[in-house]
Amino acid sequence: MLSRLTRPQAVAVCALPVVALLATAVFAPLPFSVAQPGMTANVLGDNKGESVITITGADTHKTRGQLRMTTIEATGPDQDVSLSDVLDGWFRTDQAVMPRDSVYPSGDTVKEIEEHNAEEMKKSQDTATEAALNHLGEQSDDIKVTLRLADVGGPSAGLLFSLGIVDKLDGDGSGGDLTGGRNIAGTGTIDADGKVGPVGGVALKTQAARRDGATVFLVPKAECSDAKTDLPKGLRLIPVTTLKGAITALVALEKDQGSVPSC
């Protein structure tokens, strides 16, 4: 058949499957999620009309600064992402293309994912409380800490929760605020011994932090290089590996004494 066609006609016929394949690739859903900077919340303040941290059984002092946990927003697990979406995300500094399985557990329904994230947040809050009280040498039987943060899931706010509890109970340890009145943001998981773990998406979280007024960002040390990617102007990075180290760095920053680590 092709032998009966002119050269331009033959080329056109051969090109049809390629065009069809490209069209399919452009419009077919791909196994990716597109993420962007999400909301932040000051754990020392209120969120949707409720105090994020409520402490009973011990004296607390009023804090002046802010400790902002940070998030990313990603396309939903049931939302189609096309090739054009992926290409657009790759060439933008305020978006990131991530494998869907790295954002959402594979094979789960939307409801199951929401339940999983809520469970992870609850575990993170309990562990953050334990880490903070362990650091201060306090007993959980004597002090009750309630953490509330609506519409946020996952464990990445653990470090900020712990710091918020320490600030409310002990401040900088000598009568001042742990924040020094600054707007400080950050991210990182935490375990009961106060070890800080990586979380992912830090380059987007730094953008969310600076957008909402932060001038300092606490980042898990292992993610320093990621955090420096497209770092917003005016935002200072402080790498941390433990709760104790984060507190020491913030006190040094507040009092302008001692060495403050940097990425």
Automatic annotation (TrEMBL):
<dbReference type="InterPro" id="IPR008269">
    <property type="entry name" value="Lon_proteolytic"/>
</dbReference>
<protein>
    <recommendedName>
        <fullName>Lon proteolytic domain-containing protein</fullName>
    </recommendedName>
</protein>
<dbReference type="GO" id="GO:0030163">
    <property type="term" value="P:protein catabolic process"/>
</dbReference>
<dbReference type="InterPro" id="IPR027065">
    <property type="entry name" value="Lon_Prtase"/>
</dbReference>
<dbReference type="InterPro" id="IPR014721">
    <property type="entry name" value="Ribsml_uS5_D2-typ_fold_subgr"/>
</dbReference>
<dbReference type="Pfam" id="PF05362">
    <property type="entry name" value="Lon_C"/>
</dbReference>
<dbReference type="InterPro" id="IPR020568">
    <property type="entry name" value="Ribosomal_Su5_D2-typ_SF"/>
</dbReference>
<dbReference type="GO" id="GO:0004176">
    <property type="term" value="F:ATP-dependent peptidase activity"/>
</dbReference>
<dbReference type="GO" id="GO:0006508">
    <property type="term" value="P:proteolysis"/>
</dbReference>
<dbReference type="GO" id="GO:0004252">
    <property type="term" value="F:serine-type endopeptidase activity"/>
</dbReference>
<dbReference type="GO" id="GO:0005524">
    <property type="term" value="F:ATP binding"/>
</dbReference>
<feature type="domain" description="Lon proteolytic">
    <location>
        <begin position="153"/>
        <end position="236"/>
    </location>
</feature>
